[in-house]
Amino acid sequence: HAVIEFAHRQLVVLVSVLVSALAIYAWHLRRTHREPASAPDRTAFVALGLLALQVALGAVIVKLALPPLRVVLHLALAMLILATLIVAARGGLARRPHARALVASGLGFAAVLLGALTANTGAASACLGFPLCNGQVVPDGNYLQHIHWTHRLLAYTLLGYTLWWAVRTKQPAAWRVAGLVTLQVAVAAAMVLLALPQPLQALHVAVGAAVWAGLVIAAL
User: Fold this and answer.
1) Which sign does the torsion angle of CA 202, 207, 213, 219 carry?
2) How far is 133 from 84, CA to CA, in rounded Å?
3) Could you tell me which residues come within 8 angstroms of residue 216 by beta carbon, excluding any fewer than 6 positions away?
4) 100 — phi, psi (to 5°)?
5) Each residue of 19-58: pLDDT tens digit?
6) Of 56, 73, 77, 148, which sits 20 to 30 A from 50 (CA to CA)?
7) What whole-number distance in Å separates Cα of residue 85 and Cα of residue 104?
């Protein structure tokens, strides 16, 4: 765990340097009035502000021994930073996002955060079996089962919605998102059925981030 934490902190330093450089570059372009179409817009400054908040929150989390709700907030900020960097890389919002994309993004964001809550409260092992929770549609156990089951229900809803969205609009971006969500559900199923092996847990987090990135890109 110490090695993982050390590597994480080194990556934070690298990301901080890159985001700071992006913000400085965006400021320079705005100051000199030389902004090509692909230039990062003001979202680069938003990303820098979110990153500063993220670093401060990370220090608090380490100091307080990783309380679950603060870890969830930490992940939420990370996802928002990722979203703002994607928007900045694409030169800002060219149009208003479609309602379908916004709904999908909201579902995806909620599913990611509930997943973090599930993992950090010990609820990951509260629901055995797949697709139901201990063979039940409505778990009759403790609050950990309800946290886990709520996360699954959000994931199932996101899967159904993105498939409907892709079929309805026939947009390549929507199909890519639907494919990623399908992969995420498959990884989750394998993870639960195989007693939560750590490599699959890591893959679950990675694919979840990819789903969120895909949703943001599809909304642009």
Assistant:
1) negative
2) 35
3) 82, 83, 86, 87, 105
4) -60, -40
5) 999 888 888 877 776 665 555 667 888 999 999 999 888 8
6) 148
7) 19
